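Good morning,

Attaching, inline, the backbone tokens for the sequence recovery test we're adding to the shared suite. The designed sequence is right after.
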């Protein structure tokens, strides 16, 4: 059953057909169809089905040896020299109809090109196939006998992989350049200029009334439709905005459309604050969407600062700290008297980057973000209790005043370790006093130094012992928390037991060691 609309193509990077034809080792030759430099491939598939329509994804190079096409080459059958000319004409017409139907089905399925293998079925490409491809505008490639279909398909996927790698590199470089632009003295125009250059189009920031505030890239006929799309998104955002929404809510898209042959997209910056990013480009790849989304996150933070004045407040707080002001005097400028420290780590093996760190801060409603080697720390006012964030594992401290920030930082680190070990999206440090509060701090520290002296200076052993005790002696969960093999955990704990000359299976020993480690 034929589709009612144009076939979709798989989400693979397109590669030019010309790049495949340029491979001298394959020896491919185009013998029919348009020689259009814009013809691209999204994959390769070989099939001898008489009707390949159900098996094509769109954008395919379909490879066939023509098994289903009548008229194979070979010696004439006995008596064929005296065959009736009328019969031969009817057979040729039937072959032509069959081939034409076949090519039309390939085109209807979204096939990008047809590769015909010469030998062993046909000695040459059937003339009927050449005529049908020419009539339907389907590029036809002759695959020589020495070239296998597997080699052609492998070449296509190699080109696709190279294109994918190049696209990832392009997106990464764009993210870095956008982050650098956001740190300049004129961040909003700089981000717009960088976005317009990276997507090869136009980027516009619209204000609450739908008026253009700043723009970059050459104006075009699509400016009017782009402004209309921005106003549509503004009306939707105003209708659905929550009164208590965070000023750093990640952007939402209004959907895509086209006008004057240009692809248009719009992004709401924050929740109901009235700023919209409009993007217009001649083409739109998944990489372009990612780049525009990064710019929208950065602009969301920047426009939030302009509205709330938080940017000026943070600058004032920084200056006061540098000039000797006490943290407790500076904290009110940042947004509160008591604070939470949040430690975040991306899921999997990903390493956080500046853009990801900014996005996490936006999700938590705070611009006070510190990017470390493998963890992101965020300072959040206590009145904004963090919620789980997609793609992140979080550890949250108890609320603390500025004097207690160092202790809260340690609490958040331990909470993150527990979250990683238990594979929980968010773990909060439990409030309340404990037995340690009954022991003078100096005496507790002296006792801890004496008890832990045999392992002092052995950071890996101390870290493993701490995690192992906090996770109730679980080898597997400790291995996950430390990102090491469980056998490594066993070896380190055995070494700790030997150095400390202690029975780590004894709950009293475990309790005393835990109290000592709490002082470290």
């Amino acid at each position: 059953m034929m589709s009612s609309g144009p076939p979709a193509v798989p989400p693979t990077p397109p590669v030019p057909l010309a790049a495949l034809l340029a491979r001298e080792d394959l020896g491919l030759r185009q013998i029919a169809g348009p020689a259009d430099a814009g013809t691209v491939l999204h994959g390769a598939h070989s099939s001898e089905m008489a009707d390949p329509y159900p098996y094509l994804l769109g954008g395919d190079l379909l490879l066939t040896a023509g098994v289903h096409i009548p008229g194979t080459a070979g010696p004439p059958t006995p008596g064929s020299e005296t065959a009736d000319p009328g019969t031969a004409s009817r057979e040729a017409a039937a072959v032509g109809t069959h081939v034409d139907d076949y090519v039309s089905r390939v085109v209807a399925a979204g096939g990008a090109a047809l590769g015909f293998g010469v030998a062993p079925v046909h000695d040459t490409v059937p003339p009927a196939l050449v005529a049908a491809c020419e009539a339907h505008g389907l590029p036809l490639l002759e695959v020589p006998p020495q070239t296998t279909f597997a080699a052609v398909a492998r070449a296509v996927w190699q080109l696709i992989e190279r294109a994918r790698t190049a696209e990832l590199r392009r997106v990464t470089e764009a993210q870095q350049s956008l982050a650098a632009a956001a740190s300049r003295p004129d961040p909003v125009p700089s981000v717009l200029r960088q976005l317009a250059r990276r997507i090869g189009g136009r980027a516009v920031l619209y204000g609450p009334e739908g008026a253009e505030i700043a723009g970059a890239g050459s104006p075009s006929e699509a400016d009017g439709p782009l402004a209309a799309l921005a106003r549509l998104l503004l009306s939707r955002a105003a209708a659905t905005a929550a009164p208590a929404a965070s000023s750093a809510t990640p952007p939402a898209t209004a959907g895509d459309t086209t006008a004057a042959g240009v692809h248009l997209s719009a992004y709401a910056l924050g929740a109901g604050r009235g700023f919209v990013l409009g993007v217009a480009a001649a083409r739109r790849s998944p990489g372009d969407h990612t780049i525009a989304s990064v710019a929208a996150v950065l602009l969301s933070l920047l426009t939030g600062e302009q509205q709330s004045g938080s940017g000026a407040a943070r600058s004032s707080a920084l200056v006061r700290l540098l000039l000797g002001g006490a943290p407790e005097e500076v904290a009110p400028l940042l947004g509160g008297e008591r604070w939470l420290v949040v430690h975040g780590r991306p899921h999997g093996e990903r390493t956080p980057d500046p853009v990801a760190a900014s996005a996490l801060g936006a999700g938590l409603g705070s611009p006070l973000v510190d990017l470390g080697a493998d963890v992101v720390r965020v300072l959040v006012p206590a009145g904004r209790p963090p919620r789980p964030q997609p793609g992140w594992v979080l550890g949250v401290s108890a609320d603390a005043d500025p004097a207690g920030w160092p202790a809260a930082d340690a609490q958040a680190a331990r909470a993150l370790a527990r979250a990683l070990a238990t594979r929980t999206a968010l773990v909060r440090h439990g409030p309340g006093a404990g037995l340690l509060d009954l022991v003078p701090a100096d005496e507790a520290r002296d006792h801890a130094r004496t008890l832990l002296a045999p392992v002092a200076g052995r950071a890996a052993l101390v870290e493993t012992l701490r995690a192992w005790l906090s996770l109730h002696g679980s080898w597997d969960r400790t291995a996950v928390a430390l990102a090491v093999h469980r056998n490594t955990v066993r070896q380190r704990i055995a070494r700790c037991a030997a150095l400390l000359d202690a029975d780590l299976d004894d709950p009293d020993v475990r309790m005393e060691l835990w109290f000592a480690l709490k002082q470290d």
